[in-house]
Every structure is written in structure tokens, then in C-alpha cells.
């Protein structure tokens, strides 16, 4: 029985003009384009300089800042108020104000201050921007000290910090984004499509014909599930190819581990799609419900922002998201080279989800309404 | 007038009968706001920290203690060797490892300088950078205190001011984006699907042979979604102000004007889409793919526009949502007034007019012909 149903499902999938193309093209497009757009990198910030001192020292500092590569001087104003205007008009993201008497104060009295004001509507931009600026100022400070009083150089050396960035030494954003995008693709394609499937049969009326046959519920659901499971492999493979060709990203760990865990995940998320499909009565409803869940899950699962910085209740909620476990697997295997032994929690969790959702889909499918 | 009233009532009933969709339309903004407002944070807290202390002398212990008691870090393990750190990274149990070499205290006292190493898991580059900069700051201040600072001649002190969003709340950045997305979703998607449904079900023909003017019918379709979007707009504003503590610092009046313009724009867009398609599914897909996805990625809602490649920056300018979100940000977060949003408002008004004209023309042609 299952064999014939599967044959039907695959034939329908392949004959549909849209579907096979979407399955291949969407991951391709997303993995190509999104890393270009979704860049939280903070650089090339527009800087407005208010140099009230115009001394050799202040000019040196301004030169140092503008040569740092992080800032582009787009505005030089006479007063702070003018600089603020340029921020309001979005011509500048950050302001450096050097007060008059800066050099004199530093040389004569040994202390001077300056003002860094950053537009923090985008918290990351403002925070990192002001941090970069502060660290350039402190580098400048060390230079100045070394020049003015060479003998005290040693006592301010203090603790020297050597930072190494593991697994992503050049701090490239695509390295972070691509595993997340892969999970997103799997979720959307293997979650939305099954959700639409049963609902469309309901709307077309072909579900009635199925209901009057002796086909068991479990067989029926299984026949719907398996084609999307196969789809998952296709999607993942396309993603791997694009990641390798375009972004030069190859998993540190083994492909097999990733495929294995993804297989479990696809079972779980297709199960969720099928559950929604059972409860929705129109395509629109199904789309909306799925959109709602997928959106919430994507943001709750640590794809783009770390789970560790979420409040307690959100972290608890994230335990119920299959995506959370897959993204952990993806990142750990792809970037850090972990193996299945270190990933036992996700294994159990994903397996549990797969059983739960598919069981629910089978039970909630009503042959007679 | 009676005709219009009767039709509007019919449309409202249609919407009310589709319980699930309406519930989701009202719940989606709430969920998105709560998620974006509370759960998603780019702020880094409770970073899991591991320490390899090869000195274990008085000074190194103090340093570790200082880091561990800082709210940004959470000491998870004291390791004996750097190789063990690799294990922790693989299982994702630590994001940062501090390595203190042997003879820390002795070196510091003898030479005035001693090295420490920070190993950061850079799979998320921004988190890694932030974490390293926090750790560096803590270590520097420890150094100041422990070695008796003040012996530093020529100190430049930067005063850092974080404008508009001093607590660096992620919500400030996301609330305008949520408004832009939800309003576009309701108006463009729902309106177009509603009109397309009438065509698909054949009830459009029935309406056309009645003495009702086509214009009346379209306006009747638009009004309930207009009301629904206004309700959602008010809901989002209320939640932002009272639950998320995002203020409306600028002019409420202009916020309302800009939002009403945007709503009309999205409605016109919905009508335009519906005049071009003949099936619900296509209407759904077009408004979904062509509206929602670009709005999420290109409008500056989540990802800053200025770090995108130029091509996408141009695309972003075509999207009405980008202008709306920029205006809302200036009004709500930066507390500016009309002068700042003049160009945004002008562009939005112009787009609305253009879309409305084109939509009317296309509809006239289809409905008459």
C-alpha cells in the first residue's frame, strides 16, 4: 500500500512545475544573496569630527582615527550641536569631539578628556563603534606616553593581552550565517511544503477520495512524510555545494554527521507541518500558522542571536524548539569539528521531536469530520 | 452609501468567520514584539568562561576572581591545560578561555609586564569581539587597581555617550521594523488574497453583474483591512510603550500620519497585486515572496542598509517599507520632528499615489473587459 502512495506522491511532486525548481533555486538564492546582506559587521562608520583644539596632537588623533579603516570622516563641524545635526540627518553615526585646550591640558597637567557620542538606535553598531573608537584613543594614549616619557614605558606595560579568535580567525560573518541559513532553508522548505500539501488536497477535494479508501492513517501520513524527507537531503546538498563553491566553507567535522542529524530534524519539522495541515482548512490559514511558528522558532532558537543572552523564560522556551538543537549541531560540526559523541543531547531531543510531531499528525488526522 | 455599508459588513463577516487567520493577525505582532523586545538581544551576558591558570599565585587568582564575579561572565570550568579548552569549545560549553602562563606574579613584578591569552570562539564574530573587549576592559581595570594606577602620566580619558538608546536595547531597532512588516503583511497580503479569492471562487462574476459599482466593491474590501491594520498599529504602539519601554519620543501626530500613508500604500499594493493574478495561491506567493522576504531582509529592519553591497542598497530604496521604517525610527527613537521625515513622507505619499493610480487603471480594464 505504502509503495503505491509513495509512487503517487513522488509523481505529483515531480510533475508540479513549481516545486522542484523552488526546492533547488531557493537555497541557492538564499545562500548566495543573504550573506551579502545580512551582515552585522560594524565597519565604515560615518564619523563627524569636532576638533575644537586644532593642535598638532588633536590633528594626529583625528588622522589616526580616520586611517583606522573603521571610520570614514564624513563631516567636520565647528560645534557639537552641528555634529548632532549631522547624526540626526543620518550623515554620521558617531561623533568625536576634541575640546579646545586638549593638547595644553595633556602636556601641562597630564590629563585631558574628549567626547565620543555614538548613535545607538542600533545597539550593536553604537556599542561596537564606541568601543573601537575608545580602543583607538587608548592606543594613541600609549603612543603619546611612550614619546613624552620613555622611561615610564615599562610600568604601564602591565598585563599584555593576546587574543586569538578560534574557528573564524578573520571574524567573517558568512561563517556564522551559513549554518543558520541552512537550518532556515531546511525549516522553510521541509516545513512549509508539507503544511501546504494536505490543505491543498482538502481544498481540491481529493482528500475525500483518500478518506474512503481502507488506507490507514499512519500509512497515509508516512507517504506524505517521506518525499519531503528526501527533499531535505536535496536542499542540504545544494546548500553544501553553494557554501563550498561561493564561500569556501567546508565542514570541519564529517558530512555524514550533518546529514544524519538533519534527517532527524526534517522528520520533526515535516511532522509539525503535517500537524498544522490537519488543523487548517484553507491554504491561507496554513500559511499563516506556519509562518507564525517558523518565525517565532527561528528567532527563539539562537540562529542569529545567542541563546545565552536571552532572558530565562526565553531560554526555557527555546528548549522546545527543534531548530535550536540543529543549529547547535550545524555550528559545532561545521565550524568546530565536533562529532556525534559530543552531541548526544541534540540527538535525543531531535529524535523525541520527530516521534512527537509525527505521532500527533497521525492521531489528529481525521478521516471523517 | 447603503450599498457600501452592506458590502463592508459582508467583508467584516468574511474575516470574522475565518477565526484562525484573525487570531494570528492579532497575535503575530504581539509575539514578534515580545520576541524581538525581550528575547533577542545582541547584548552579551553570562558568557561561559573557562580558565587555564598555570600560575595559581595570589595575583592570577585575583584576576580570575575578578573576571568570574563580573556579570558578563560565568565561570564554568577550571582547566588544567589548553588542550582541554578545545573539548569545551567543541561541545559548546565555553565561549571564552583565559590562559594565564606560569609565573604570572613574578613576571609582572620583575618586568612590569606579563602576558595572558584570550581564546575566543569566533563562530559568532560580533559576540566574540564584544566578549574579548569586555574581558580586556576587566583585565585593564584589574591591572590599574592591582598595580596602583595613577602612575600613568598623560592620561586621555574618553567620555562615551550612547545617544538615543543608552541601554542598547535591541527593541529600539526592531519595533519600527515590526510595524513595517506587520502592516505590509496585513494590507498587501490579506487584501490581495481576499480579492483573488473572489475571482477564484467565481463570486466576482456575480458581483460584477450586479448594479454595484466596481469601485464601491473594492473600497468595501479595503476598509476592513484598513481597520484591522489600524488596530494592529495601535496594539503595537501600546505594547512598545508600556511593555517594552520603547518611547515615542518624537511627534505622535506625524507618526500617525506617516503610518496612515504607509497603510494606504500597502492597501493600494494589495489591490494592484490582486488585479494581476487569478488565483489565491499566486496572490499569496507574490505578496509573500515579493513583499515579506524583501522587507525582512532589505528594508533595514534587521540588517543595516549601509553595510550592504550597493546593488542591494538601491533595491532597498525601491521598497516603501525602508522609507517607512526610517521615518518611524526617527520619530519614535530619535525624537525628531517633521523636518527630519520630510523626504520619507514625500516618497511614501508619492508611491501611494502612483500605486493607487496604476491599481485603479488595471482594475478598470479587467473588470470592464
Total DSSP helices of chain A: 15
Class from helix and strand fractions of chain A: alpha/beta
Distance between the termini of chain A: 24 Å
**Main sheet strand line-up of chain B:** 2-1-3-4
- Uncertain segments of chain A are none
Helix-strand string of chain B: HHEHEHEHEHEHHHHHHHH
Report the structural category of chain B: alpha/beta
What's the total helix number of chain B?
14
Percent range of helical residues of chain A: 55-70%
Integer average pLDDT of chain B: 82
Q: What is the total domain count of chain A?
A: 2
Spans where pLDDT lies below 50 across 5 or more residues of chain B? none
Describe it for me?
The complex is a heterodimer of chains A (369) and B (369). In chain A, 67% of the residues lie in helices and 10% in strands. By secondary structure, chain A is α/β, with parallel strands linked by helices. Chain A folds into 2 domains: 2-38 and 170-364, no CATH class; 45-152, 3-Layer(aba) Sandwich (abc type-2 transporter like fold), CATH 3.40.1710.10. A 4-stranded mixed beta sheet of chain A has the order 2-1-3-4, with helices on both faces. In chain A, β1 (45-51), α3 and β2 (71-76) form a beta-alpha-beta unit. In chain A, α8 (173-204) runs parallel beside α11 and α10 (217-247) crosses α15 (344-364). The radius of gyration of chain A is 28 Å and the shape is elongated. The two termini of chain A are 24 Å apart. The mean pLDDT of chain B is 82. Chains A and B meet through α2, β4, α6, α7 and β5 of A and α2, β4, α6, β5 and α7 of B.
Keyword list:
heterodimer, A: alpha/beta, abc type-2 transporter like fold, 4-stranded mixed β-sheet, 15 helices, 5 strands, B: 369 residues, alpha/beta, 14 helices, elongated
Amino acid at each position: 500500500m505504502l509503495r503505491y502512495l509513495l509512487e503517487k506522491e513522488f509523481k505529483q511532486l515531480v510533475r508540479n512545475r513549481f516545486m522542484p525548481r523552488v526546492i533547488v533555486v531557493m537555497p541557492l538564492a538564499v545562500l548566495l544573496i543573504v550573506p551579502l546582506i545580512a551582515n552585522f559587521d560594524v565597519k565604515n562608520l560615518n564619523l563627524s569630527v569636532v576638533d575644537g583644539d586644532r593642535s598638532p596632537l588633536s590633528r594626529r588623533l583625528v588622522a589616526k582615527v580616520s586611517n583606522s579603516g573603521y571610520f570614514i570622516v564624513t563631516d567636520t563641524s565647528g560645534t557639537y550641536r552641528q555634529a548632532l545635526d549631522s547624526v540626526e540627518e543620518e550623515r554620521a553615526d558617531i561623533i568625536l569631539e576634541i575640546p579646545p585646550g586638549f593638547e595644553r591640558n595633556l602636556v601641562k597637567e597630564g590629563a585631558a578628556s574628549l567626547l565620543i557620542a555614538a548613535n545607538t538606535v542600533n545597539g550593536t553598531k553604537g556599542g561596537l563603534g564606541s568601543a573601537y573608537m575608545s580602543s583607538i584613543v587608548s592606543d594613541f594614549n600609549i603612543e603619546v606616553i611612550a614619546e613624552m616619557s620613555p622611561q615610564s614605558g615599562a610600568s604601564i606595560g602591565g598585563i599584555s593581552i593576546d587574543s586569538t579568535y578560534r574557528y573564524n580567525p578573520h571574524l567573517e560573518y558568512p561563517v556564522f550565517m551559513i549554518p543558520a541559513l541552512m537550518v532556515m532553508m531546511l525549516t522553510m522548505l521541509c516545513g512549509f511544503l508539507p503544511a501546504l500539501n494536505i490543505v491543498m488536497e482538502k481544498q481540491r477535494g481529493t482528500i475525500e477520495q483518500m478518506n474512503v479508501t481502507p488506507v490507514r492513517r499512519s500509512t497515509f501520513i508516512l507517504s506524505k512524510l517521506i518525499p519531503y524527507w528526501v527533499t531535505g537531503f536535496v536542499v542540504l546538498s545544494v546548500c553544501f555545494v553553494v557554501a563550498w563553491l561561493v564561500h569556501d566553507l567546508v565542514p570541519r567535522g564529517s558530512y555524514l554527521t550533518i546529514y544524519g542529524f538533519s534527517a532527524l530534524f526534517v522528520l520533526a519539522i515535516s511532522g509539525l507541518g503535517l500537524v498544522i495541515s490537519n488543523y487548517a482548512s484553507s491554504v491561507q490559514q496554513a500559511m499563516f500558522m506556519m509562518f507564525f511558528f517558523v518565525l517565532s522558532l527561528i528567532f527563539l532558537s539562537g540562529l542569529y542571536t545567542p541563546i545565552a543572552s536571552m532572558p530565562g523564560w526565553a531560554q526555557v522556551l527555546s528548549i522546545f524548539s527543534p531548530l535550536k538543537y540543529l543549529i547547535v549541531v550545524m555550528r559545532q560540526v561545521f565550524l568546530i569539528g565536533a562529532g556525534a559523541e559530543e552531541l548526544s543531547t541534540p540527538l535525543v531531543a531531535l529524535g523525541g521531536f520527530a516521534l512527537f510531531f509525527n505521532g500527533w499528525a497521525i492521531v489528529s488526522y481525521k478521516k471523517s469530520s | 452609501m447603503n450599498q457600501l455599508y452592506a458590502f463592508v459588513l459582508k467583508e467584516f463577516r468574511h474575516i470574522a468567520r475565518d477565526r484562525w487567520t484573525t487570531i494570528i493577525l492579532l497575535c503575530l505582532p504581539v509575539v514578534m514584539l515580545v520576541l524581538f523586545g525581550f528575547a533577542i538581544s545582541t547584548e552579551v551576558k553570562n558568557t561561559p568562561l573557562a580558565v587555564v591558570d598555570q600560575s595559581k599565585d595570589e595575583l592570577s587568582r585575583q584576576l580570575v576572581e575578578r573576571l568570574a564575579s563580573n556579570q558578563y561572565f560565568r565561570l564554568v570550568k577550571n582547566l588544567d591545560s589548553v588542550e582541554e579548552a578545545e573539548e569545551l569549545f567543541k561541545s559548546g560549553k565555553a565561549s571564552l578561555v583565559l590562559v594565564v602562563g606560569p609565573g604570572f606574579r613574578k613576571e609582572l613584578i620583575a618586568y612590569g609586564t606579563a602576558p595572558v591569552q584570550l581564546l575566543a570562539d569566533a563562530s559568532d564574530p560580533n559576540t566574540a569581539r564584544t566578549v574579548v573587549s569586555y574581558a580586556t576592559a576587566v583585565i585593564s581595570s584589574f591591572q590599574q587597581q592591582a598595580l596602583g594606577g595613577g602612575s600613568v602620566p598623560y592620561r586621555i580619558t574618553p567620555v562615551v555617550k550612547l545617544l538615543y538608546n543608552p541601554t542598547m536595547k535591541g527593541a529600539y531597532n526592531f519595533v519600527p521594523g515590526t510595524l513595517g512588516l506587520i502592516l505590509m503583511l496585513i494590507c498587501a497580503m490579506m487584501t490581495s488574497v481576499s480579492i483573488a479569492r473572489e475571482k477564484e471562487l467565481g463570486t466576482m462574476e456575480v458581483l460584477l453583474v450586479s448594479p454595484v459599482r466596481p469601485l464601491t466593491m473594492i473600497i468595501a474590501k479595503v476598509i476592513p483591512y484598513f481597520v484591522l491594520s489600524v488596530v494592529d498599529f495601535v496594539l503595537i504602539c501600546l505594547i512598545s510603550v508600556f511593555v517594552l519601554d520603547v518611547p515615542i519620543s518624537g511627534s505622535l501626530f506625524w507618526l500617525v500620519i506617516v503610518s496612515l500613508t504607509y497603510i494606504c500604500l500597502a492597501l493600494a499594493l494589495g489591490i494592484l497585486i490582486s488585479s494581476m493574478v487569478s488565483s489565491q495561491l499566486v496572490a499569496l506567493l507574490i505578496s509573500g515572496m515579493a513583499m515579506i522576504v524583501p522587507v525582512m531582509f532589505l528594508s533595514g529592519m534587521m540588517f543595516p542598509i549601509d553595510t550592504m553591497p550597493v546593488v542591494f542598497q538601491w533595491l532597498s530604496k525601491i521598497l516603501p517599507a525602508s522609507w517607512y521604517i526610517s521615518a518611524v525610527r526617527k520619530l519614535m527613537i530619535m525624537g525628531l520632528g517633521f523636518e527630519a521625515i520630510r523626504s520619507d513622507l514625500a516618497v511614501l505619499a508619492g508611491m501611494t499615489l502612483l500605486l493607487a493610480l496604476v491599481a485603479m487603471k488595471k482594475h478598470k480594464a479587467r473588470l470592464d473587459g
